[in-house]
Write a structure and sequence with these properties.
Length: 372
């Protein structure tokens, strides 16, 4: 509905940055939108809806239990609250009280204490937890993680994300082994991950996904895992979860999106490479610009285009290039995490071939005016 852009004087966007919250994440398929619309126009007993859709999702994924939440960040906060509160009725209503006897420490590798658009630590604090870092920014072994466990440890939190430090970090399986040995639960935040069962199978007690990223559902989140832990997450609807409740349309839409996601073939990295080849060739024809295929740093089957700008030759700083393209008539968003190194990445999953041509043309036109 192009008139929406006109009505509110919104800019058209080319999303070359991937499934990013700041751009609305993804564009759900027609059947998902249809179910969302159905949910908007009907009434349900919400507890029944939560329980029945959760059971349905758990059956699809062959896990013990599942529940739809409002987003992955809410999933972190509610999961943290769940392992602290459990089924304590008083603590549910007094989560942020000063009871010093309550185990609140949430242990995570230091290199996982990241900002994904908001700090992980903020979500932990919202859930009543207290962050305890294990290891160092560039290193955390199973032994270093285990050494930080005390009677005050409520859970281990593992952030499986490209935002996290990747090198010299223990794996999810190793974290699960530490958790089992010391009888503490393991929460895995796998917000943008594509495999919906692997971390559960590796031994996580709770696993959190974004409903709108890989799954391409409406704004929502999924928490799955061991039945007792998921039941404790559900109890948070009468605690902090009240401030982050998900609507009926989100619950139904995500359930439909998951069913679609696990039955349809996935776009492969090779298909992404084929899509971006003409784009890479057009960029390599520009003076001072070089492009190549790179693979996702977190190990997912995602191929992207890396664009390197010769700043001295072009007379342009990469940060300036990124800002100018973002602020043009059409807002073009890259993955700019390495702009300080003169490089950006293009995620082609949400970009059409004509849009790739537009990006190349805009880059070319940008340099016509000379240095900036």
């Amino acid at each position: 509905m192009s008139s929406i852009y006109e009505k509110y004087q919104l800019k058209q966007v080319i999303n070359a940055s991937g499934r990013m919250t700041i751009l609305g994440v993804s564009t759900p398929a027609a059947d998902v939108a249809e179910v969302v619309n159905y949910g908007l126009n009907h009434f349900f007993e919400m507890k029944d809806l939560v329980n029945k859709t959760g059971a349905y999702i758990a059956g699809l994924l062959k896990v013990e239990s599942a529940v739809v939440v409002s987003c992955a960040s809410a999933g972190i906060a509610q999961s943290v609250a769940a392992v602290i509160v459990k089924d304590d009725a008083w603590l549910l209503e007094n989560l942020h009280g000063s009871d010093s006897d309550v185990a609140r420490d949430i242990l995570l590798p230091k290199g996982h204490n990241v900002n994904f658009g908001a700090p992980v630590a903020t979500m932990v604090t919202l859930g009543g937890g207290r962050v305890v870092e294990a290891g160092y920014a560039n290193e955390c072994s199973a032994a270093q993680l285990a050494a930080c466990i005390t009677p005050k440890t409520a859970a281990i939190l593992y952030i499986k994300s490209h935002h996290s430090v990747q090198k010299s970090m223990l794996s999810v399986a190793q974290a699960a082994a530490v958790a089992r040995e010391h009888h503490v639960p393991l929460i895995v935040d796998a917000a943008a991950e594509e495999d919906l069962t692997v971390y559960y199978q590796l031994g996580a007690d709770l696993v959190i996904y974004s409903g709108a990223k890989a799954i391409e559902g409406p704004t929502s989140g999924l928490v799955l895992g061991k039945k007792q832990f998921v039941e404790w997450v559900k109890l948070q609807s009468n605690g902090i979860g009240r401030a982050m409740k998900v609507g009926k349309e989100g619950i139904l839409g995500l359930t439909q999106a998951i069913e679609r996601y696990i039955t349809l073939p996935k776009t492969t990295g090779q298909q992404m490479m084929d899509k971006m080849t003409p784009f890479i060739n057009s960029l390599n024809a520009l003076d001072g610009v070089s492009a190549r295929v790179v693979w996702d740093s977190a190990g997912r089957d995602i191929a992207r285009t890396e664009i390197a700008f010769d700043e001295a030759r072009l007379g342009w700083k990469t940060e300036k290039i990124v800002d100018d393209l973002k602020n043009g008539d059409i807002a073009i968003y890259f993955r700019g995490y390495r702009a300080n190194e003169g490089k950006v990445e293009v995620d082609v999953r949400s970009v059409t071939p004509p849009q790739l041509e537009t990006i190349a043309a805009c880059i070319k036109n940008l340099f016509k005016g000379g240095a900036a």
